[in-house]
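As practice, study what follows.
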Amino acid sequence: MNFSNILINWYLDNKRDLPWRQTTNPYFIWMSEIILQQTRVDQGLPYYLNFIEKYPTVFDLANADIQEVLKLWQGLGYYSRARNLHFSANYIVKELNGNFPATYKEILKLKGVGDYTASAIASICFDEPTAVVDGNVYRVLARFYGVDLAINSTKGIKYFKELAQELIDVKNSATHNQAIMEFGARMCKPQNPDCDICPLNDKCIALEKKKIKELPCKEKKIKIKKRYFNYLVVVTPDDKTILNQRTQKGIWQGLYEFPLIETDKTIDKNELAKDMQFKKIVGKEMYELSLYNSQEIVHKLSHQHLYTHFWILKTTKKDLIIDWKNIHDFPVPRLIDSFIEQFIKIT
């Protein structure tokens, strides 16, 4: 029995009952694949269900306000995925008359769609035998074949894509692709894989050579950047505050946050009060400034860590337009959302 047959047989006996496996509708498959990028299934599942309920067709998603989409996405992280979903939905509706692209090459043109996602949609929805290669697939192939090429190198990416393509069952590509991904997620796990009961264990080179923990290989990670955030949480006697939308490219584009003063190190109350941006916000009004969290909150993103202080700024300013009672209407990063939930409970 060949590699693909073993995986497919295992999959048919062990696959999880997930809603996107009960359809070949490309819109739903696309939605699930974008949500599951950088996200575990158990975390992404409720978001998927909420999105297809709120936007059951690509027309519904295209017609939605982007702020509404971002709000529904809130807490899932990597918000560019939500913006790309909305952008591509508009492209499909306006440029393709609502018809989802039906080939790997055409799907790849959608914003936010890479080789893996295009391969998954093309194979599952349109029976195009294009092999998927994600973290799970890299792990299975690297271990089974004993390949020590870095999976995040140009050479490694090309090699594993070609290997995956050679192994795919061209007559049953959809099941093959889902099988190898599920196998990597549940059997050939990153830590403590179930090698004793693995149906591939008799030919697994990594197991034979005791290199399970060493494979797959990765090149050295990018250095983590430290950033120091000071949020000014404005509170007025008439329960108004300030939220600004992040319009610049980078993290959290399109989301809202309290006025931010970013510094190159941790600062104290006196240093904050001397900042020009702080003075601009306060103006000539009387104010009271206090630190909400004495210990910095470290919010970890993929290539940067945010060391964050929230400062409560009580002021008598009267030209503010955002009511605290409406603050949940705005899409905010998880860091801000967690603060709001805690702050409201104690005020």
Remarks:
- The CA atoms of residues 32 and 48 lie 6 Å apart.
- The beta strands are 225-235, 240-241, 244-245, 256-257, 260-263, 287-291, 297-300, 304-315, 322-323.
- The radius of gyration is 24 Å.
- Residues 80-95 form the longest helix (16 residues).
